[in-house]
Specification:
Number of strands: 7
Distance between the termini: 7 Å
Number of helices: 8
Strand content: 5-15%
Strand order of the largest sheet: 2-3-1-4-7
Mean pLDDT: 91
Order of helices and strands: EHEHHHEHEHEEHEH
Bound molecules: zinc ion
Largest sheet: 5 strands, parallel
Low-confidence stretches: none
Helix content: 40-55%
Structural class: alpha/beta
Length: about 220
């Protein structure tokens, strides 16, 4: 099972990736996690990535690709993987296809989790977190017992600057502009499946599992 998960911030893609990885016992590869791991293990790519991050720069494509390449060469990925956060661009997708092709493999499916934009905005802007104990609430879906205060420690809840309406709208626009060519690339190759990300985590997971089964992937 070689899967790529796509989805805007706030659609629950990371959670779905964790569940799929656990269900099918395949590693979930998240680019953020890999970068942190490579830096910790001081691999050549990790050293380069750290140098960029220390200078406040974006980690270049070549470094991210190198890190993913190292990861996919590990025995743990021999029987498949769930990729989350990579590829982000068409050149990265082409590199991924080439890496797999070199091993006589290809991607099985690209699952694009979609939620109407207004719903994503509601999900993200409703989040409130506790600055003291890091507990996370949602004004609509997981409200604290006393509005505005943490259930666990009683501290006043805050909205992360990432979750304000303006920032959220901006992040979504950036994401859409960035990934539109990638989605078109996979759609043209018949690899892309859109999955409705509305509803409970369990429902969405069930839709993905059914889709994979319909494509003979799992
Ligand atoms: Zn708290």
């Amino acid at each position: 099972m070689r899967l790529v998960l796509l989805g805007a911030p706030g659609v629950g893609k990371g959670t779905q990736g964790d569940l799929l990885a656990a269900k099918f016992q395949r590693p979930k590869i998240s680019t953020g996690d890999i970068l942190r791991e490579a830096v910790r293990n001081q691999t050549p790519m990790g050293v380069q990535a750290k140098a960029c991050m220390d200078q406040g720069k974006l980690v270049p494509d070549a470094v991210v690709i190198g890190i993913v390449k190292d990861k996919l060469a590990e025995p743990v990925c021999a029987h498949g993987f769930v990729l989350d956060g990579f590829p982000r661009t068409v050149p990265q997708a082409e590199e991924l296809a080439a890496m797999l092709k070199a091993k006589g493999l290809q991607l099985d499916r690209v699952v694009n989790v979609t939620v109407p934009r207004d719903d994503v905005v509601r999900r993200l802007t409703g989040r409130r977190s506790c600055p003291k104990c890091q507990a996370v609430f949602h004004i609509e879906f997981a409200p604290p017992k006393r509005a505005g205060f943490c259930d666990r420690c009683g501290a006043e809840l805050m909205q992360r600057s990432d979750d304000t309406r303006e920032t959220v709208e901006n992040r979504l626009t950036v994401y859409e502009n960035q990934t539109a060519p990638l989605i078109a690339y996979y759609r043209q190759r018949g690899l892309l499946s859109d999955i409705n990300g509305a509803g409970t985590v369990e429902h969405v997971q069930q839709r993905i599992v059914e889709l994979l089964s319909a494509h003979g992937v799992a």
